[in-house]
Design goal:
single chain, alpha+beta, Rossmann fold, 3 domains, five-stranded antiparallel sheet, four-stranded antiparallel sheet, 10 helices, globular
Length: 307
């Protein structure tokens, strides 16, 4: 037992993933109350330090997603205040949130990735910077926010990238498109929980596919060869370790079985994965024999500073 009786669940925030975070946080808060914790829900505003200090909590359950909640910012604040918190620390959060820096770490560890470059959104929106098919995505957003797939035969990139009302990062990753299947692996406390295959009838596994009712289907365990499942779990644990992550993470892969030689390609590691009762991580935890409430309790009991 951790001795943390009063827990602040941080949810909402001001990133592009605010609505997802509100849903994750509400689910976690409900589960933690069911596990016997006293829970205070905090939606960080203009002065989150005052909100946290006024709440007089023993620890913080970080259910924020996206920028400010997943990129090391709130982690640094919690370190400053001396409030133990869940999930990864400052450095790991900042590294994993920046997709190109993540790839640098992957490459050094021998984790397979595809070619990519980082460019200003206006440049990426004016002309092809890579031979199609390729993907354009913000270098520091999650939940497939602002992701575009440029298909073979497309005359030009999406014009949305050049519009003045663009509200996401100006830095975009332009990345080789990988055909095949979408796999994901959750790692809890350094151990892989399982492999899920995600399928959707939409154009790709975008924000709507992730969060709209019926937008995607999850198959756990994934119907893939045992050697592929084992390798995906090995690579997910390795990614968790080399990025310096703590608590729970989820690493996403493309399994390209379209050619003569199948390959696994790592896409990114999520340090604040979705935590609604039907999200991918709780599903894998349930497959591994851990209830949603037990998962939330484990994360609280794992909380600390200096992560």
């Amino acid at each position: 037992m951790s001795g943390f009786g009063r827990v602040a669940v941080l949810l909402g925030g001001r990133s592009a993933e605010r609505e997802v975070s509100l849903s994750s946080g509400a689910g976690c808060a409900h589960a933690l109350r069911g596990e016997g914790f006293e829970v205070v829900e905090i939606d960080p505003g203009e002065n989150p330090a005052s909100q946290l200090l006024d709440a007089r909590v023993d620890c913080a359950f970080n259910a924020l997603h996206g920028r400010w909640g997943e990129d090391g910012c709130v982690q640094g604040l919690l370190e400053w205040l001396g409030i133990p918190y869940t999930h990864s620390g400052v450095l790991a959060s900042a590294l994993a949130m920046h997709k190109e820096r993540t790839k640098d770490v992957y490459r050094a560890a021998g984790i397979p990735v595809v070619k990519s470059i980082v460019a200003d959104r206006r440049e990426a929106g004016r002309e092809h910077l890579m031979e199609p098919p390729y993907v354009i995505k913000p270098v520091n957003e999650g939940s497939s926010v602002g992701v575009y797939i440029i298909r073979k035969g497309d005359n030009r990139p999406p014009s949305e990238l050049t519009r003045p009302e663009w509200h996401l990062s100006d830095a975009m990753m332009v990345e080789e498109f990988v055909p095949g299947r979408e796999l994901t692996v959750a790692v809890l406390g350094g151990k892989a929980l399982g492999v899920t295959e995600i399928t959707t009838d939409l154009a790709f596994y975008d924000y709507e596919a992730k969060y709209a009712a019926g937008g995607s289907r999850h198959t756990v365990p994934a119907d893939v060869p045992p050697s592929i499942a084992e390798e995906a779990m090995r690579l997910a644990v390795l990614a968790h370790e080399v990025l310096g992550c703590r608590g729970v993470t989820r690493t996403d892969f493309r399994y390209d079985d379209t050619g003569s030689k199948p390959r696994l390609i790592a896409l990114e590691t999520n340090t604040q994965p979705g935590m609604t009762p039907t999200s991918l991580v709780p599903e894998q935890a349930a497959y591994a024999g851990m209830s949603y409430g037990a998962l939330c309790r484990w994360l609280v009991e794992d909380a600390s500073c200096d992560r």
